[in-house]
Write a structure and sequence with these properties.
Elements: E1 4-16, E2 28-31, E3 34-39, H1 41-49, H2 52-58, E4 64-66, H3 69-79, H4 84-95, E5 119-121, H5 123-139, H6 158-163, E6 179-181, E7 184-186, E8 193-199, E9 214-232, H7 233-239, H8 244-260, H9 267-270, E10 276-284, H10 307-326, E11 332-337, E12 350-351, H11 353-361
Helix pairs in contact: 2-8, 3-4, 8-11
């Protein structure tokens, strides 16, 4: 079984603002001396793991990331008749297994039930918490030390296995991410533009004031983005406790999500939904490497070639260039692409996304 799977995707987004900076404008980066639009890896991973594609494919094998587990337990206990003081103490003890609880003296009421940092709970841990709460309700006594051993490893939470988790209070139960996700960048120069817009007051007949009811401005940009993802398949197997069938479902869901979903920023304003036009997958045991260097020189559309076609040519050229320098950098590779681009690849290399999923899942 190849240790590493590397994915290289090209996706063209129309005018959009999928991932905003602190000023509300699209995130950007300087690459090769030119400004590019950027989508952060954090935004991408959240979009994938919360997508309908993930939920449909993985169902009960997804976790929950929250600070508010103590509040949830407290509500469950008080709804069943446990007194507020006891419920609060027991809820803090349970949530405290997953992180440091906020200081009751320095926070508002009910915030003293929150964990200071987001914690990711797997299905087995959520089940154990629920069962413990039911026991406490039934017998009306505080949880024992043994009952508070709620952390699990390994477990079946695919999102934790893929993207990892850190528990500062219990580092033995940390999970190293099996997937590394780069920030997506445009393969060409990209400007951030401003959309000046107005909104009309429906009840304003213009008798006294014909002005707009609201005036606003929002940033946007458009472009073809390159995204690199590296999967340590051996670590993914370890994180999932050797469940091969679940690992393959995870790989399939990841490929489906990364090619068909994006962060939801400003979607109602721009409807900037897009599918990837090309995904190149590589398998092997050698040290992984991104192909982002293919775009140090910004791509420029030509009269007979769109930016995606030129980006594919640059991607293949950089892959071949690395192979010439280092020898073969992967054991096998396959592509999913729109039919109009199949001719750019050697015979039999390009096909459907379903075929690429099969390729990635094969040992």
């Amino acid at each position: 079984m190849s240790r590493f799977i590397q994915l290289h995707a090209l996706t063209s987004y129309p005018p959009s603002n999928l991932n905003r900076d602190d000023l509300g404008r699209p995130k950007s980066a300087i690459v090769g001396g030119a400004q590019r639009l950027r989508i952060s890896s954090q935004a991408l991973k959240r979009a994938w793991r919360t997508s309908d594609l993930f939920k449909t494919a993985l169902d009960t094998h997804l976790g929950v990331r929250t600070k508010e587990m103590g509040t949830q337990v407290w509500r469950q206990l008080t709804a069943a008749g446990i007194g507020d003081k006891q419920a609060r103490e027991w809820a803090r003890a349970i949530a405290g297994r997953f992180g440091k609880i906020k200081d009751a003296k320095k926070t508002e009421r009910n915030e003293d039930l929150e964990i200071e940092q987001l914690a990711h709970f797997g299905p087995e841990e959520l089940g154990a918490i629920d069962e413990l709460a039911k026991k406490l309700i039934e017998r009306k006594t505080e949880p024992t030390v043994d009952e508070l051993q709620l952390l699990r490893k390994p477990h079946s939470a695919v999102d934790i296995a893929l993207f990892g988790r850190m528990l500062a209070a219990n580092p033995a139960f940390n999970v190293e991410a099996a997937v590394q996700v780069a920030h997506a960048i445009t393969v060409h120069k990209a400007a951030i533009e401003d959309d000046y817009f107005t909104a009309v007051d429906d009840l304003n007949r213009g008798d006294e004031d014909r002005g707009a009811g609201h005036i606003g401005e929002t940033g946007f940009g458009a472009g073809v983005y390159y995204l690199y993802v590296c999967i340590n398949r051996a670590l993914l197997d370890e994180n999932l406790g050797g469940r091969a069938e679940l690992r393959n479902r995870a790989l399939g869901a990841l490929l489906e999500a990364m090619t068909q979903t994006a962060p939801t920023g400003k979607q109602n304003s721009f409807a900037s939904r897009a599918y990837a036009s090309c995904v190149l997958a590589e398998k092997g045991d050698r040290q992984p490497r991104s192909l982002a260097a293919a775009f140090l020189k910004p791509v420029r559309s030509q009269d007979d070639k769109d930016a995606t076609r030129i980006a594919i040519e640059a991607l293949l050229g950089k892959r071949n260039s690395f192979d010439q320098m280092y020898g073969s950098t992967s054991d096998a590779w396959q592509v999913a692409a729109e039919g109009e681009y199949w001719s750019l690849f050697p015979e039999g290399r390009a096909g459907s996304l379903a075929k690429l999923v099969e390729f990635v899942q094969q040992d």
